[in-house]
What we know:
Helices cover 0% and strands 45% of the residues of chain A. Chain A has strands spanning 4-7, 10-13, 19-25, 31-37, 44-49, 56-57, 64-66, 76-78, 87-94, 104-105, 109-113. In chain A, strands 2, 4, 5, 6, 9, 10 and 11 form a seven-stranded mixed β-sheet that branches. A four-stranded antiparallel β-sheet of chain A has the order 1-3-8-7, with no helix packed on it. The model of chain A has no long low-confidence stretch (mean pLDDT 94). In chain B, strands 2, 4, 5, 9, 10 and 11 form a six-stranded mixed β-sheet that branches.
Amino acid sequence: IAGITQAPTSQILAAGRRMTLRCTQDMRHNAMYWYRQDLGLGLRLIHYSNTAGTTGKGEVPDGYSVSRANTDDFPLTLASAVPSQTSVYFCASSDTYSGANVLTFGAGSRLTVL
Amino acid sequence: GQNIDQPTEMTATEGAIVQINCTYQTSGFNGLFWYQQHAGEAPTFLSYNVLDGLEEKGRFSSFLSRSKGYSYLLLKELQMKDSASYLCAARDSNYQLIWGAGTKLIIKP
């Protein structure tokens, strides 16, 4: 089934640990995004990539890094997790970043940092 | 600053009609999106407006007024499965989406 796969589904992590959230899409979409969703707030963009080999910073990039070595994969790394990074993380993709670029979202990764 | 405002929660009755409003302020404008998100699930696309007017898609319609920075999502013949959060998002001049916090819609029998 075409779509986006995120892993892990949920994770409890000690503060200070390094963590990578994985995201893979099989739709050959050019653009990919990482969002975090917190109660009472809208989705906030962490990092994005308009095409393989390029990345950009979103609204809340501090403490996170990404890479886009190929079209399909877009991992998000927390170098040293802090409790404020407790959130639900959604990876998304779209065929393009302009026009009616409909986002397809993964199922989300729920991360708890203690 | 950039901002999206939508009501936090609304309640409606099965079979009725409900209108969810959204106002936006963005640096430039390149379209308005509505997404549906059931509890514990990922958002899914509902509608896209870039020109003024009404876009109809089955039981769901979306309206845009660019001069007023205003949009609404109209849901007709409400069903219990329509209980969800509805997310409004405006795209700015840099083609980045600015998201509202979502409107939780509760449908009562």
